[in-house]
Amino acid sequence: MTFKSLLGGAALSFALALPVLAEENPAIEQRQGQFKLYVHNFGVMGGMAQGRMEYDADMAQTAADNLFHLTRHDQSRLWPEGTDSMSVDGTRASPAIWDDLDDFVTKFAALQDAAEGLQAVAGDGLDAMRAGFGPVGQACQACHESYRDEAS
Amino acid sequence: MRKLLFGAVIVGVLSGGAFWALTAPRPMDAASLATLAGDATQGEAVFHAAGCASCHIAPERDADPLVLSGGREFASDFGTFIAPNISPDPEYGIGAWSAGQFVNAVMRGISPEGAHYYPAFPYTSYIRADPQDIADLYAFMMTLPADATPSQPHDLGFPFNIRRGVGLWKALFLREGWVVTGDLSEEEARGRYLSEALSHCAECHSPRNALGALDHGRWLLGAPNPSGTGRIPAIAGDGFDWTAFDISAYLESGLTPDFDVVGGSMAAVVRSLQHLEKSELDAIAAYILRAGR
């Protein structure tokens, strides 16, 4: 075997290996889309809570309603095994999620509860909305602290 | 042959002696430490600014941030550091230490027995603190719950497991003095004190050299995450466009300007810093922007 054909063989096996490495499970993009929609609504209320924009009861209530419904979206097909940050590129989902799925589910349920609490008060004035907003942020933070890796 | 052996012994003794002299701990002035008296009420704010709990909290999920039992592991290029028990337990923690011993430990990285601490403990930042603040911190920490969890030894490879060698590292890299210099407003200077001396932002947000010393030339420009995947983001430089309002709001609430919510090891930092006065967070923000100019 010549040096050239050896190199060719190595390049070919690399080319074959590459798509497997780079393959992304569609669930990753879909769950990231879900979180973007959370922010799309959470951010409206965050902007009001921080005084970046004026409080508007209708807007706040609509955003809180959306967040309530978004957090009811069934998660069962969004977190397949092998879609953690150690297994594939393009995700910040820590392998720790699958090491302790019970806790992950518990933390997700806490988000659902907080979103329900916010929905109940978002239209009742700035202070009421703020009081409901805090626990939602805490629920986000609790999960991000344990289960989201640093961005690359 | 005998002459050669004698020569080798002499060289060995001399270089051993030089190593011993170079690596000797250099404690603070004992007389000035002896007169320090701490105020626990003042020390509470120092405790939150200095972020002690972020590393010394127990490893269990949802552990109490006021019980400083240690046990968290910090992987690095040099091995794995395990945060020790710094609760006021007299046997397993620091309950038997004097205020002076505590100040020497925090500001010089020297144990009461005279051994070096590894610079995973950010005395490289705390060296810039006001000793009175650290004495106040001592007084506050002595009011926290005692915990009898034994500290675990670090797991380091050769030659980093030779603790005495840290003296050499200190001789090369441990410096007093500010990193960001020049004309600073009063608010920026307060922020510099909080950030460079207490909150030690740069310890994660700045890159390090091959020996683990912070690169002052790339201050706050982001760094690889030493203990996991991804990067600790830059908080200075071209890619960083937050305003003072954004930074202060983030440290207070954990919300980015895009309303993402803080996670990872920064979550514990926010949990500490949100105990500070808003004016202190504004000062940190002013400093961060000044450092990036």
From TrEMBL, chain A:
Signal sequence, start to end: 1-22
Alphabetical list of PROSITE patterns matching this protein: CYTCII
Domain of life: Bacteria
Matching Pfam families: Cytochrom_C_2 (PF01322)
Keyword Transport: yes
GO MF annotation terms: electron transfer activity; heme binding; iron ion binding
Binding-site positions, heme c: C140, C143, H144
Annotated protein name in UniProt: Cytochrome c556
Species for this entry: Roseinatronobacter thiooxidans
From TrEMBL, chain B:
Organism superkingdom: Bacteria
Gene Ontology molecular function terms on file: electron transfer activity; heme binding; metal ion binding
A Pfam family reported for this protein in Swiss-Prot or TrEMBL: Cytochrom_C
Keywords: Heme, Iron, Metal-binding
InterPro entries: Cyt_c-like_dom (IPR009056), Cyt_c-like_dom_sf (IPR036909), Cytochrome_c-type_DH (IPR051459)
Ranges for domain Cytochrome c: 38-145, 186-292
Name of the featured protein: Mono/diheme cytochrome c family protein
Provenance organism: Roseinatronobacter thiooxidans
Lineage, opening ranks: Bacteria, Pseudomonadati, Pseudomonadota, Alphaproteobacteria, Rhodobacterales
